[in-house]
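Checklist before submission:
- one chain only
- standard amino acids only
- sequence pasted in full

Submission:
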Amino acid sequence: MTGWSTAEEVIERLGLKPQTLYAYVSRGRIEARRDADDPRRSLYRTADVVRLEKRRARGRAQAAVAEEAISWGEPVLASAITTIADGKLWYRGQDAATLGETASLEDVARLLWDCGDERFPTQTNTIPAGRPHDRMFQVLAWRAATSPAIRGRKPKALYFEAAALLDLLVDAVAGGSGEGPMHRRLGRAWGCDDTGMDLIRRSFVLLADHELNASTFAARVTASTGASLAACALAGLAALSGPLHGGMAVRVRSFLVESDKSGPHEATAARLSAGTILPGFGHPLYPGGDPRAQALLAAFEPLPEHSALAATVQDITGELPNIDFALTALSEFAHLPEDAPFQIFATARCAGWIAHALEQSRTGILIRPRARYVGVDPGTT
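Returned file contents:
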């Protein structure tokens, strides 16, 4: 096999039924793309096929399965909040892209938290001075140090705390206490017009949750100990801050700068030749393209240089823009602050962290995996 294989080759090599192959693709276990020579059929990444073949060869030992599940593998927790199916993102059975047409972050938070039509209480927050990034960590750390644990508290009390926590984070980004819908409060702080505010709203909805990503898993582990909702949100924010997660926008912007300087074709070819990734393109869980990016990019006209890079990458590699590219393109289109992609991402995802923290707390189970020791044999040193 070469770098990409036909369906027939994969089915024969793995001994699958066609429907099983399609299920593997939908769960992100095998990446697929259109065949440039025949758009009616798909090709499948050979490296993914080889990985599955090797796993079958070594059997399904419990330790091996558990280790692989941690890295884009099988689901490791039961959840009724969010799923990725049929190439789409679903919040409690509702299409996130469809919700993005009209819903607000408050609406989606209520849906994810499963709390009906409870209102968000009005509150006044004292926000420290400093950069928005610093303020976000400071307010969550302060609230984590002073808030009671989740366990033993009534659902309604937890809901009001969750609403207050999300409100606090919005004010931390905006730089002061405000009123009205969260997307408009943030938009006013950034000097946006109505179009810009609506794009922030759409981004909030599309980014509110994404199944069991790294930051959400961190929040759930924290919740499993019985810690406060603020502590769970702080754990999520800490994980999100890494360059491979919420910090990806910085790498996308660097790629855009390279494209501006040398041209999109040259910038893409240079990265491919160097064996480096193309930040902002492709997603393991969306072989057919990130629906969040598609929904957001359809709501505005990206700058010509952004459109040119997206078209070039698709032409050369077949990869489509993901949400990191779309959020960066939106930020520059609407003249938002440089760190706006991270701030929008974190604010929106806080709703999901809280939802997962509440769900995990209700199980009463401590998340405690085991390590597969590969060090020096005990007692030999």
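Reviewer check: The chain has 18 helices and six strands.
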